[in-house]
Design brief:
The chain is mainly alpha-helical. It contains twelve helices and no strands.
């Protein structure tokens, strides 16, 4: 672990540790599921949306913190890492401190989840427990998800399909196939964020024994996969568009697609960590843009046909 004497204050250290730039990944499916529920139920439930957003953000923060500590302990993150600052590797916090914060964050997610369980019953309890367990398993356990090629699939499920389906259930008491399709659409750009992150780190990750999808596919193959994820977003939204109200409104999410195309073009010339980091942040913004567009379209088509 690299010791750095110029540790910033605790607020700045916490800011680096939780990685706020990636938090739209957990908030976007909550917003999408809320839009589906509102359009189908005919009324908003701000209490459900706010508590679910806090719970989802807490799970992601806990996952980020645990990943920070674990990647230093297993020597994946070293002084020559290309990505944003990791507080454990810098010596700003000990692994024990970061892991304690991760477990506290998971506990907050469980606490928020109790309110949602009181509304949705055992299906929401099952979703919450599986989500927390998945967040833990991403960087911990005998076979961490982050070290293998299934990370992108994990993200599509737990930053798309599962939360959108769960939010829809909380609002309406049921889940439909179109709601799950929208969840997959929201999860695809989240998977693209992970792909860009792993593409940037592929050399260091390979040295540390990882076998991520970016390592297996290489730079050109990863860029082709990124374009495939964009195509999946477009195809999913167009498929929803033929299903009638309120699903037809989801095609408004296509307004965000040009952002994704510009990121794809930038990846063709990416030659530094700074470019990859910029693409990573822009991809998270792309997910949020398409979510807001699709959600607004659902509400317009469902409430004001």
């Amino acid at each position: 672990m690299t010791q750095t004497p110029s540790r910033p204050g605790w607020l700045a250290t916490a800011w680096y540790a939780i990685r706020p730039r990636t938090l739209p990944l957990s908030l976007s499916p909550v917003l999408a599921g809320s839009a589906v529920g509102w359009a189908q139920a005919g009324a908003p439930r701000p209490d459900i949306t706010l508590v679910a957003a806090l719970s989802a953000a807490a799970i992601q923060v806990g996952t980020n913190l645990q990943n920070d500590a674990a990647d230093t302990l297993n020597a994946t993150d070293q002084a020559d890492r290309l990505g944003p600052v990791r507080v454990t590797e810098r010596g700003w916090m000990t692994a024990r401190q970061v892991l304690a914060a991760a477990y506290a964050s998971f506990a907050l997610a469980v606490l928020c989840g109790l309110y949602l369980v009181a509304i949705g019953g055992w299906p929401i309890l099952a979703i919450g427990l599986v989500s927390v367990a998945a967040g833990y398993a991403y960087s911990a356990g005998p076979r961490p998800i982050s070290r293998g090629p299934l990370g992108e699939l994990f993200v599509i499920l737990f930053f798309g399909v599962v939360p959108v389906g769960g939010m829809t259930y909380l609002y309406t008491g049921g889940v439909t196939a179109p709601a799950l399709l929208l969840g997959a659409v929201v999860g695809l750009p989240a998977a693209a964020v992970l792909l860009v992150n792993n593409l940037r780190d592929r050399r260091n990750d390979a040295r540390a024994g990882r076998r991520t999808l970016a390592i297996l596919l290489g730079r050109d193959g990863s860029r082709r996969l990124f374009s495939g994820l964009l195509a999946g977003v477009a195809a999913g939204l167009l498929a929803l568009g033929v299903l009638g109200a309120p699903w037809s409104g989801a095609v408004l999410g296509l307004v965000g697609l040009p952002l994704g195309v510009r990121i794809w073009r930038s990846l063709a010339e990416a030659d530094s960590a700074a470019v990859y980091n910029a693409c990573l942040g822009r991809t998270a913004g792309f997910q949020l843009a398409l979510t807001l567009g699709a959600g607004l379209g659902l509400l317009l088509a469902g409430l004001w046909p």
